[in-house]
Amino acid sequence: MSPPSSLQQSDNNLLNNEEYSDMPGELGNEMIEICTMAMDKFVAKRDYEGASTLIKNTLDKKFGPSFQVVVGEGYAFDVSCQRSYLLHIYYGKVGILVYKSI
């Protein structure tokens, strides 16, 4: 599945080409904007917990509960999630995993 167009081209060039998304275009683009906004705010302080909390709270308010967010460096994952609700991107060297649990 091809990634949303905003994954390939970013204004701040911090998103790189290692990503995966099974979300429809509009939803994926909106989630990327939310993730980018949170990372812009917290990455300088390396406050990944703050970034993940902001992303989760924003997504839960906007799209309903049950979102899970992982932000950090050097992790692997194997998750079960709702179809069309998985996003994995990198902001520089920091990985961001967002999914809606079943």
Automatic annotation (TrEMBL):
Location of region: Disordered: 1-22
CDD domains hit by this protein: DLC-like_DNAL4
Any one GO biological process: microtubule-based process
A Gene Ontology term for the protein's cellular component: dynein complex
Pfam family, one: Dynein_light
InterPro entries per UniProt: DLC_sf (IPR037177), Dynein_light_chain_typ-1/2 (IPR001372)
Bias-annotated ranges (Low complexity): 1-17
Gene3D superfamilies in alphabetical order: Protein Inhibitor Of Neuronal Nitric Oxide Synthase (3.30.740.10)
Protein name, UniProt field: Uncharacterized protein
Protein species of origin: Thalassiosira oceanica (Marine diatom)
